[in-house]
Amino acid sequence: MTIYEGKDYKEICEKAAELIASEIRMNPRAVLGLSTGSTPIGVYDRLVEWYEKGQLDFSKVTTINLDEYKGLGAEHEQGYRFFMNQYLFDRVNIDKSRTFVPDGTEMDSDKACCEYEEIIEEKGRIDLQLLGLGANGHIGFNEPGDVFIPDTHCVRLTESTVEANSRFFRSKEEVPKEAYSMGIKGIMQARHIILLASGKQKAQALYEAVYGDITPGVPASILKLHPHTAVFADEEALSVI
Ligand code: GLP
User: Which reactions is this enzyme annotated as catalysing (predicted)?
Assistant: First the structure.
């Protein structure tokens, strides 16, 4: 795990975007693992800027997202497919048939998860996985628990995650209580991983992920076992370290 300290959010987004852009330039058919939440927005904005200047071409890129709320479709403003369209896919020349997000409208969890797992396997190993960090140490929607779950699964969201994500919804009651998430195996199979963390509210989780034991109680701690994980964190996120 290599840690890069940026002075602020803008700087860490710039660094992460540079790595993603180089991956696409070196390998136009790159498979990118993408994430949602407020943290990666600055990265997507930077990538869009470079695309608009003619410096990036997404036409052959494939993307596989980490997760989706169960019950939310592409048209739901807080759904992750909607988010990806809004912040990246609708702003660049990506072929949307090569963009994958778990199907939140599939209410049969086993079916939704098996189908997504098949997509992950079919597309091959992810070249570069972008991750945000939950304040409780989650990655994707791999919530703290007793075991690491390898495959795509349906997650019962923890109370703290529902609370944290309620800022995007009109009320806490509107936050779906379940989600589909890529498992730890899918994430750990990526060739390179970028973990982005910004702000004081991530400081404790980041400290535990970087210096604590490797434990499913802090899902991000597993990243220490990955040979190529780069953490981009700002001063506030590193304030406990
Ligand atoms: C959600 C997503 C995660 C994301 C996390 C942190 O729970 N499932 O993938 O990393 O939120 O979000 P934020 O960046 O908004 O703090």
Answer: alpha-D-glucosamine 6-phosphate + H2O = beta-D-fructose 6-phosphate + NH4(+)
Are 151 and 189 in contact by the 8 Å Cβ rule? The answer is no
Give me the domains of the chain, ranges plus CATH numbers: 2-234 (3.40.50.1360)
- Burial of residue 126 (CB within 10 Å: 0-12, 13-18, 19+) is buried
Catalytic residue among 138, 153, 165, 208: 138
Residues 6+ apart with CB under 8 A from 238: 3, 5, 203, 206
**Pocket around ligand 1 at a 6 A CB cut-off:** 35-39, 66-67, 132-134, 140-141, 161, 165
Task: Establish whether 27 is a catalytic residue.
Answer: no
Contact 182, 218 (CB under 8 A): no
Q: Among this protein's residues, is 76 annotated catalytic?
A: no
Q: What is the pLDDT of residues 129-178, one digit of tens each?
A: 999 999 999 999 999 999 999 999 999 999 999 999 999 999 999 999 99
67 counts as catalytic: yes
